[in-house]
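Two records follow; treat each independently.
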Amino acid sequence: MSLDFDTRFEPAYGNAVPIAKGVLRLTVNNPSPFTFHGTNSYIVGSDTLAVIDPGPEDDAHLEALIQTIAGRPVSHIFVSHTHRDHSPLAARLKALTGARTVAEGPHRPARPLHLGEVPALDASSDTDFVPDLVVADGQVIEGDGWRIGTVLTPGHAANHAAFSLEGTGILFSADHVMAWSTSIVAPPDGAMSDYMASLDRLTGRDDRIYLAGHGGPVTEPQRFVRGLKAHRKMRERAILERLRAGDRSIAEIVRAIYRDTDPRLHGAAGLSVFAHLEDLVGRGEVVCAGVPSLDGTYAPAN
């Protein structure tokens, strides 16, 4: 299954871009190798509004949100997950609008930390955010002319949720599925087994378009999700091949299979390899000395 990334995107910083009926997109000016051109916030509704992923602490983006809201009431602020490029601005937006914050829950790791383990992405996690309303899978929040459903998609983060605009075929996929790149999965913040299961969940849905947390829309979501799954399986096979060839560390594997990748992304690549290895150890296909870790020693199980 081919996987074609779409990097065409005009961020239009500070300006609200109409995406669909009753849906506007505002992009934060926080570009990086991990955020692409920046984080997308979405404003849903026409009279009483909902905001999805208000973004990082950024004065200019808050001002753009307030200008777009234009004095209309905001009833809910939905947060897909608690990474610092998505959730921190929720507190200030809530204070200005009186909206209730909605999410799967506060930040947490996908599994208990091992003794002495320091999460590699700890600095990127918003541990201050606590939602006013904790939503379960399938729960629907009704607003003024819109209904937003919860689709739990752990993997990139343990508390990651996508949100469906009911009756439209639109899924706000946040960082789980993006048109421009694969999602970073980094233990213990996220888990590859959860991520793959969440991809399977989406293949069972009939959404017609994904509006992602970074970059442009995914216009053929079913095909793209199948491609993402095939890509991850291909990466898993490449890791197993490197182990059979004698590689024993994550650094060795990254140098071999990411040799054409921007060196600035090798750290993230190492986290992705770690996620695959942790999953492979859990399934009994790989063994390691002690618990899986970034500096662990790995070998094929047989």
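The next record belongs to a different protein.
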Amino acid sequence: MSSLSEKLMSQSAKAEGGSRIKQNSINALDQKRIATIKTAVLAEGDRIRAKYPILKHQDAIGMTILLLSMAGAVLTGWAYLEGVLAWYVTIPVIAIFLSFTHELEHDLIHYMYFRKSKFMHNLMMALVWICRPSTINPWARRHLHLHHHKHSGTETDLEERAITNGERFTPLRLLMMFDLELSVVLRIFKIPKNRRMKALMMGAAGNFPLASAFYIGWHAYVAYWAVEAAAWAVGYSVPWPAFVTPELVATANTVAVLIFAPNLLRSFSINFISSNMHYFGDIEDGNFVQQCQVLNSKWFIIPHLFCFNFGSTHGIHHFVVRDPFYIRQMTAKKAHEVMRANGVRFNDLGTFKRANRWSAKEQGQQEAGYQAA
């Protein structure tokens, strides 16, 4: 391993509380496969870094991507307000820009930008959170995400379970991926009674204030138009309070186009891809070969537009944490070759029938409960 690889891997291990692999819990064949994949991906990452020296300026690259993404979203919104872009163009374009900020947040959680500058690191964390107000506090997410890497696909992997990983694939699951606040409400009674209040308090703390304000506004907006639609269907005029003026409704419609819809489109896409590329329940704890599949089928082009090709490259990250998202894209071709040759699954669409279980024998298993949460 090169000195760069050794340095970065040691830093990642330190940041995450040590090694993520418990070798005695993984079968011998997969231990060898994991070592082979990690070695190949690290070597490819080192080769690309040597070929493109600009990549050593990782902090500057991360901040540049963030500022350009924010500028792109703002300019798109301005074009909509000026009547240059239609709403159906504005929403997906803003969602694409927001997808970059999600990748940046993920890399920041792993301390990939401004590791030596606490102020700049936290500034970036705050900015990516503001860009995506429907999401949990990123500092709170860090704890959940690092635990996810240690125990991906187990009962204690709350980050993946929160986005419906392990649930039976039904229209209700699609709804929960779309609206995570509603997901909490729909599943709260699956939590043991003695833990419900704690779970609600933790969720409220993680969502405050941005996600709380986002979902209150979103649900109020949906409720208003649902009532209006029902009233229109029966020929009734709703006597709204005086403060519900045409100007307020017009403002709410604008907020829906610029904030609500792009964030919900982006979050649904990442939740759909992530919850179905990760396996759940019947995998060996710490076995990277079994944790993820690669979803790079043409059938996932549309959701991948709004989550930066996450299903194709995130599995690489489980083997090698050190590389930021743009380098994972650059190493993907080589990484996919060695991953395929060493047992990692590609486009296993059966996961949708198996509630994300690794084995087909689990197809009839009930939805994952919260008994070990």
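Discussion point: The longest helix spans residues 246-277. How would you locate this feature using only the token line?
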